[in-house]
Design a protein that fits this description.
The chain is mainly alpha-helical. It is 59% helix and 7% strand. The protein contains six helices and three strands, in the order H-H-E-H-H-E-E-H-H. The protein has a three-stranded antiparallel β-sheet. Strand 2 and strand 3 (104-108) form a beta hairpin.
């Protein structure tokens, strides 16, 4: 789909940043991400990309860096740097991909799994605090709508839709 910059003639209202959904999503995501990133940095010495990798590897052991990038929405360089930092701390290990070709599979070490068991309750506590003012039905609706927006953004960018997640 091609997006043009033409504004319909019937539109008399210009762009108001505070009403612009992409802007509001970005600001909200930055606020939430920054809050949580500070907590993980202070408590565990992890960057935001590192804790994402740990959490994904706890769910899906032995993934390639490309798979991790697809799951987390992070670019290759960010995944690579995060993985290097985690490997240096012995929180993840690398093994040869069974098909060869130079690809490596990444997996949590025993230490990484232990760290995840400490991170998970904190992550759930932050989520609970963030959604405390929302009804369960509102949370389900929010998750569904965010998934649809993500799919629409990827489609507009010519990328495949993310894999479905359970609500």
């Amino acid at each position: 789909m091609t997006i043009t910059s033409r504004v319909p003639e019937t539109s008399v209202v210009g762009l108001r940043l505070d009403d612009h959904l992409p802007y509001r999503l970005s600001v909200a995501a930055s606020a939430v991400s920054g809050l949580i990133a500070r907590a993980y940095e202070d408590r565990f010495g992890l960057t935001d990309p590192q804790w994402r990798l740990i959490c994904v590897l706890a769910e899906d052991p032995a993934l390639s860096q490309a798979d991790l990038g697809a799951r987390t929405g992070m670019d290759t360089m960010t995944v690579s740097r995060a993985a290097q930092g985690l490997a240096k701390r012995r929180l993840i290990g690398r093994s040869e991909h069974r098909t060869g070709g130079g690809a490596h599979m990444l997996a949590l070490t025993r230490e990484g799994a232990h760290l995840h068991s400490e991170i998970a309750p904190l992550a759930l506590a932050y989520e609970a605090a963030l959604i405390a003012g929302l009804a369960p039905s509102e949370v389900a609706t929010l998750k569904r709508l965010l998934s649809r927006l993500q799919g629409a953004a990827l489609a507009l960018g010519g990328q495949p839709a993310p894999r479905a997640t359970a609500d």
